[in-house]
Hints:
Blueprint: H1 2-5, E1 12-15, H2 18-28, E2 32-35, H3 38-42, E3 58-61, E4 82-83, E5 90-91, H4 96-107, E6 111-117, H5 126-138, E7 141-149, E8 160-168, H6 187-191, H7 206-214, H8 262-268, H9 283-288, H10 292-310
Parallel strand pairs: 1-2, 3-6
Antiparallel strand pairs: 4-5, 6-8, 7-8
Amino acid sequence: MGYKLAGFDVLGGVEIDPAMVKLYQQNLQPKYSYMMGIAEFNQLVDSDLPRELFELDILDGSPPCSSFSIAGAREQKWGKKSVFREGQKEQVLDDLFFHFINTVNKLKPKIIIAENVKGLILGKAKGYVKQIFQKFKEADYNTQLFLLDSSNMGVPQKRQRTFFIAHRKDLNLPKLELNFNEAAISVKKAIVDININASNYPDLTENTLKLWHRTKLGRTLATVHPNGSRFNEKKLDPNQPAPTLTTHCTPFHWSQPRRITKEEAIRLQTFPDDYNFLNTNGFYAIGMSVPPFMMQCLANEVKQQWLDKLA
């Protein structure tokens, strides 16, 4: 969606999750859509693929990243097969970035943009970063790594993500310079015009309601919980950007004893208000996605600094 907002033609994609494929098809009408894992896509015969896929300006990828998240016992997951939410198939998630680089070798796009969680550049995961740089180098790409914050890019949400951005060496492009400093947008400003009938949403349990009343704006329920539990559940500060929206811990409204609604989450993630989430509740797709405005800002810079020089 971010590329579409930036004026790009979104040709298609590879996605293992059938529900997400349906969302892409409904909202973006891709010309080519492959419902399969990236490793399976790499096994397709080149001559059976459309020529356009070998003439890409940008190949964008977001290899599933839950095994690198700083939440939970991430190192214990590395190298192990599990049935993850992404496609409900047994996979080793930390291998998928390297399968994506195999796709780079297959299609040889001009530019690569690959997004992942901040946890990828922390602690022991830094070893993966070195391997990623090495694999891009072997594929004849010059690579840069950026840590970007969506709240500096027109998004009313503080969401930090790493981006590997690379170009083919033969293009002789300069280094990319990224300095995003847009003024922060508060939660209240982003969603103030959304009319919500709070009676349509479930009441908080008695215990949660007590914690909500005692929790200060912008703090988590753990700050008032007797055991320090519920540290992922936050009460929004209306005058600040929202914290990172996740797939399962929807934040609480600041003045009404309820969690934010799907309509409010859509706005905080900068999806269009009329984005069709079909029969899903929307929170999973929102929590797993790069905010469209964030991607739009990045795509615009890549176009201006690199693609326009190649035109």
